[in-house]
Amino acid sequence: MKSYRTNCFFDIFAGFLALALSVPAIGRQMADLSSEDQTGGTQARQKAAPANDKSWHLGITPYLWFASAHGTAGYLGRDASFHASFGDIFSKLNIGLMGAAEARKGRFVFPSDFMWIKLSDDTALPENELGVTSIKAKMTQSILTPKTGYRIVDQEKLNVDGTIGIRYWHLGENLSLQPPGLNNSQSANWVDVVAGAKLQMPLSLKAGITILGDAGAGGATVDYQVAGLLGYRIKPKVVLLLGYRYLNVNYRPSSTFVYDGVTSGILLGTTFNVK
Question: pLDDT tens, 48-67?
């Protein structure tokens, strides 16, 4: 009976762990394309050179990440491989909130990113010795990434920002076995220090590309990401974003669960330059 309970719990937990971690936040750098000097070419640079602009600027970016995930999840000393497509994840999604923002003054930048999602599933079980007829699993995940940065290179055709900050992770799960009486809840919180760079290049008066990446560790053994974004300005203060992001994290604490996985996929967003 104990073996059945452990195996059943682990299988459901590993699957939901994969789903929850496959939709993390996009990354704070998308908001940079909202600045009027990012995709405006020479004409915008003549209006206000960032090096001489001492005003505060703010960009807000809601986004969606159409991500899949694969890797290894573990609990109670057991590991299992997983692969979840975007369709798998979306079918279990209850609610989610994703957004990035960046404040900028002169060469200093203060980007941040927040993501929160909730997943659930209710699975019927065949007849078994425990008398359990179904398992309901719920998972919540939050990621907050505040950073600070400085524009190292500030030229007409190339901008390079160096950034440093933290990535805070929260992951919680709850399993409810019906009939009542067999419930289990677990959660994990950790912080990684990450540092990286962002390169921006204008393609025309309205279009520009951004290439970014960061890497670090702390609670996780390794935590890194790379991404490429194409921005197109449809209005003076509105930029459409299309890109691809790859995120890798290896979390192996001495207790609770294990997650060693890769999340990647196409992302879409819209940046509003509100100031």
Answer: 444 567 789 999 999 988 88
Contact yes or no for 212/197 (Cβ under 8 A): yes
Tokens of 6: 């452990």
CATH number of the domain enclosing 106: 2.40.160.20
Segment 142-177, tens digit of pLDDT? 889 999 999 999 998 999 999 999 999 887 777 666
Nearest one of 92, 15, 2, 17 to 256, comparing CA atoms: 17
What local confidence, expressed as pLDDT, does residue 69 receive?
81
Range of the domain at 259: 2-273
Contact assessment for residue 100 and residue 30, using Cβ atoms and an 8 Å cutoff: yes
Counting the structural domains of the chain, the total is: 1
Helices (H), the chain: 2-20, 41-47, 86-92
- The residues pairing with 245 across neighbouring beta strands, listed in sequence order, are 227, 265
201: its two tokens: 């290049």
Buried (b) or exposed (e) across 172-186, using 16+ Cβ within 10 A?
bbbbbbbeeebeeeb
Q: Are 159 and 121 in contact (CB under 8 A)?
A: no
Distances (CA, A) of 5 to 79, 155, 180: 16, 61, 14
Average pLDDT value for the chain: 76
Q: Kindly report the backbone phi and psi dihedral angles of residue 125, in degrees, each rounded to the nearest multiple of 5, phi listed first.
A: -115, 150
Distance CA 185, CA 175 (A): 6
Q: Which two tokens stand for residue 189?
A: 């919180």
